[in-house]
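Ticket #4471: structure output looks truncated?

Reporter: J.K.
Steps to reproduce: submitted the chain below (196 residues) through the standard prediction queue, then opened the result file.
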Amino acid sequence: MITTKEKLVLASSSPRRVELLKNGNIDFEVIEHSIDEKLFIEKNPQKLVSILSYNKALSVSKLDRFIDRYVIGVDTIVVYKNNILGKPINEEEALFNIKRLSGDKHLVISGIAVVNSKLNIKDIKTAMSVVYFNKLNDKFLEYYIDNNLWKGYAGGYAIQGIFSLVIKKVVGSYTNIVGLPMEILYKMLEKLDLIK
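Returned output as attached by the reporter:
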């Protein structure tokens, strides 16, 4: 069993990230970050997720009650042909994005930061996975839109849901695609001597 020496703080209320940490037997509490992601402009996807994950963690780590705690910040984006696909704002954008990904490959890139303000610790890593979709038929697309399966997800889909039916191949970390690259987090916590 993997447990941590002290309770970590996750600067996210994402159910997927919470579930991944619980499944990893990592002791943590959830505090939502306070940054507005739209204020951060950066065209390089890896730089963007690094900046966002760090600032998410920092926004919590700077609070008095968490200043001596280890805070985890994460950001995940979908990149298709050098275009960053965020969370769709409506059905039209969701359908447009998913049709673009149909029968093609795209990247899922995450930034992960572990910050401790009191100890001046700032460790930032990135993960990249390649996802190949089968060609999506109209029936699948209609079901996807009608059931709002696009809401709240980068690129407009969740690999652990209905899209598990149409994944042709994945190269790289699966947990990265879900939203938190656990293999990388484990190494980061190990390096900081936080694993029991």
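Triage note (M.O.): checked the attachment and the full token line is present. The helical segments are 15-23, 45-61, 91-101, 138-146, 174-178, 182-191.
Status: closed, working as intended.
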